[in-house]
Amino acid sequence: MKLGTLLLRNATIGLTQLESALRNQVLYGGRLGTNLVELGILDLEILSAYLAELTGFPVATSTLLDDALPALLEKLGSDEAHRLRAIPFDYLGGRRSDVAVAMVDPTDQAALGQLSAKLGAKVMPYVVPELRALYYLEKLFGLPRRARFVRTARPGSEGEVPQADERRRSQPAAGMVMPPAFTLQPRARRASQAPSTTAVPTVLLYGAACERIDTATDRDQIADAFIDYAKGRCDALVLFLIRDGNALGWRAWVAPPLAVKQAIEELSLPLGGASALQAAHDASQPYVGPPLSTARPVETALWKALGTAPEPTTVIVVPVLVKTRAVNLIYVHALTGPPPASLVTELTDLAARAQTAYMRLIRQARGVL
Q1: CATH homologous superfamily for 206-367?
Q2: Mind listing the pLDDT tens digit for each residue in 288-316?
Q3: Can you give the pTM of this predicted structure?
Q4: What secondary structure, in 3-state letters, does the chain show?
């Protein structure tokens, strides 16, 4: 049984609430329970109880994770903890041959085998909600959460925001409720004429990019199509998620020899004041031109994260809309001169196709309830 089915069967949530969470999951990723909590439909403790009922494993509570043994944390290591989304926290019955491990997916047999080999012990899995796991991965291992998962919360809760951390403090607690689904007619394909602005060869023809977005089976395939399309056509492309008045980094590519300097998933830029991102977001149409603010604080923060040099004089920002609401921004720049008009046209068309693909995925998610 799936989590959504269990919640509906027990009348814990309504169908409309579940559909809202499924829409957010398609658009922003994360597990279904995460999206239910972010929308204020469930609290973390109720979600934990249902995950325990669904999986048959005990819950890794905050109390248990707060008392995690440093020796076990060190033995697993931050990289493996992050990759496996697992936190070892105690020995069972005083026996060093049995270790209790909090896992986002305690049914993942491959992960269980890797944990057992790394810890040199039999693993007893405990289930932990994704949001709680990410909070404790950051707290115990110093692994920054992706900006998409950072939310403010009341003092003392697991989402509490350190006052010195502007990245977290800028994230409001409320989630977005997406508008109802609708359908767009596919657009006709055109042959790509956008010339390469870098020495990188073109990886993905425009028609192939259209095909990949049109047939995408999840949001990551949509992102991959944009990233591959960028190669050989521009010097940088960044996909942003739009949530709560912020542009949150999702995926990025920069042309060599430059390289991204900051994990793009940790980047959160405010949609306020004057910026190219703000202009495209507010107008719900592409922006092409120089940054709008003389000081360029938003663009400068982005260029620093991308390792961009010299600073571009012209940027492109194309919104991806769901109905009339921007859910993504596609940022592009070229360092060799103004981008060709065909690049703007093709990016705009690909954005419209992404919109249609999102709505198709949302309908499919609703159809498997």
Answers
A1: GAF domain (3.30.450.40)
A2: 999 998 889 999 999 999 999 899 999 99
A3: 0.83
A4: CCHHHHHHHCCCCCHHHHHHHHHHHHHHCCCHHHHHHHCCCCCHHHHHHHHHHHHCCCECCHHHHHCCCHHHHHHHCHHHHHHHCEEEEEEECCEEEEEEEEECCCCCHHHHHHHHHHHCCEEEEEECCHHHHHHHHHHHHCCCCCHHHCCCCCCCCCCCCCCCCHHHHCCCCCCCCCCCCCCCCCCCCCCCCCCCCCCCCCCCCHHHHHHHHHCCCCHHHHHHHHHHHHCCCCCEEEEEEEECCEEEEEEEEECCCCCCCCCHHHCEEECCCCCHHHHHHHHCCCEEECCCCCCCHHHHHHHHHHCCCCCCCCEEEEEEEECCEEEEEEEEECCCCCCCHHHHHHHHHHHHHHHHHHHHHHHHHHHCC
